[in-house]
Write a structure and sequence with these properties.
Length: 124
């Protein structure tokens, strides 16, 4: 989880720089804003993964579930945003499966809910 969180954070910084410098002239302001949203959410969840992995109050089973929720949610949410916004450049059209973006968001929400549930259990 620490390695994956670090890798997601590293990729978020790289993609953020690429978006700010490499895509600035190629994408519409709306597409660039969406791309930046993907980067932001990727970084948020990379940091959450690192903090959760370093926490001693989350049981191992819950930590494993959290890992899979955050990883799959980030890939589906941020990854689909990257592909949708860069379609004019890449030619990759995933609009047929654009429904994966909200599924990714739902998985991220489920990860946060799992975290809250475990913290509530910890305080009792």
């Amino acid at each position: 989880m620490l390695i994956t969180g670090s890798l997601l954070g590293l990729l978020a910084v790289i993609l953020g720089a690429f978006g700010a410098h490499g895509l600035k002239e190629s994408l519409t302001p709306e597409a660039l804003n969406s791309f930046e949203t993907g980067v932001r959410y990727q970084m948020y969840h990379a940091i959450l993964m690192l903090v959760a992995a370093a926490s001693f109050s989350i049981p191992e089973k819950a930590l494993k579930a959290l890992f899979y929720l955050l990883l799959s949610g980030t890939i589906l949410f941020s990854g689909s945003i990257y592909l949708l916004t860069t379609k004019p450049l890449t030619g990759i059209d995933i609009s047929v499966v654009a429904w994966v973006t909200p599924i990714g968001g739902a998985l991220l929400i489920a990860g946060w809910a799992l975290l809250i549930f475990n913290f509530i259990k910890f305080t009792k």
